[in-house]
From TrEMBL:
Protein's UniProt keywords contain Cytoplasm: no
Family: Belongs to the bacterial microcompartments protein family.
The species this protein was found in: Anaerosolibacter carboniphilus
Name of this protein: Microcompartment protein CcmL/EutN
SMART domains per record: BMC
Record keyword NAD present: no
InterPro entries found in the cross-reference section: BMC_dom, BMC_shell, CcmK-like_sf, CcmK/CsoS1_BMC, Micro_shell_prot_PduT
Length: 182
C-alpha cells in the first residue's frame, strides 16, 4: 500500500533524469511520474513507505544539487491522490466545482491532499504543469460549503509560501464545461 508520496522538481531535464535513477536505486519506492514539465523543468514523483520515500527524496536532492528547485514528502497521503494524478477518478454527479490554481506541480499535489483531508470533497484531478508554464491546478467536487471549506484550508496551508495563485468555487457548473474539463 502506498503510504507516502515524494516529489522533487529540477531545473534541468538531464539532472532530473539522473537524480530519478539515483532515487530508484537508493530505496524501495515506486515511480509514479518522471517527466519534463514547462518551462524546461523536470519533476519526479515517487510513493512507498515513509522512510523509503524520505531517503529517496534526499538522494534526489543531493544528486540534483544546484539543479534541485524544491522537494516535498507527504506522509500518510490520501489514497485519492493517485487516481487524481492520472485523471482516473470515477465522477458521479458534480454539484459544485472547486478549482485551485497553484504556482508549481508540487504545490498542486500538496493542495489536493490538504483539500480531501480538510472537507468532504471528491478529488477529481490534479493537473501538473504540462503546458501550464510550470503551474498546476486541482479540481474538486462536493457540496458548495465543503468545496469552499477545502479551498480555505488550502489557502491557509499554502499562504506563507504563496503557493496558490487563485481558487474559485462554482455552484452547479455547466454540464458542457464539466464534459470538456474531465
Amino acid at each position: 500500500m502506498k503510504k507516502s508520496i515524494g516529489l522533487v522538481e529540477f531545473k534541468s531535464i538531464a539532472k532530473g533524469i539522473e537524480a530519478t535513477d539515483a532515487m530508484l536505486k537508493a530505496a524501495h519506492v515506486e515511480l509514479i511520474l518522471s517527466t519534463p514539465i514547462c518551462p524546461g523543468k523536470y519533476v519526479t514523483l515517487i510513493s512507498g513507505d515513509v522512510g523509503a520515500v524520505k531517503n529517496a527524496v534526499e538522494v534526489g536532492k543531493q544528486t540534483g544539487s544546484i539543479f534541485t528547485i524544491e522537494s516535498y514528502v507527504i506522509p500518510n497521503v490520501s489514497p485519492t491522490i493517485f487516481p487524481a494524478l492520472t485523471a482516473t477518478m470515477d465522477v458521479n454527479k458534480i454539484t459544485s466545482l472547486g478549482i485551485i490554481e497553484t504556482i508549481s506541480a508540487i504545490t498542486s499535489i500538496v493542495a489536493g491532499d490538504v483539500a480531501v483531508k480538510s472537507a468532504n470533497v471528491q478529488l477529481l484531478e490534479i493537473r501538473l504543469a504540462r503546458g501550464l508554464g510550470g503551474k498546476g491546478f486541482v479540481l474538486i467536487s462536493g457540496e458548495v460549503a465543503a468545496v469552499k471549506q477545502a479551498i480555505k484550508a488550502c489557502e491557509n496551508k499554502l499562504e506563507e509560501t504563496g503557493g496558490i495563485i487563485s481558487a474559485v468555487a462554482i455552484a452547479s457548473p455547466s454540464h458542457e464545461l464539466i464534459s470538456k474539463l474531465l
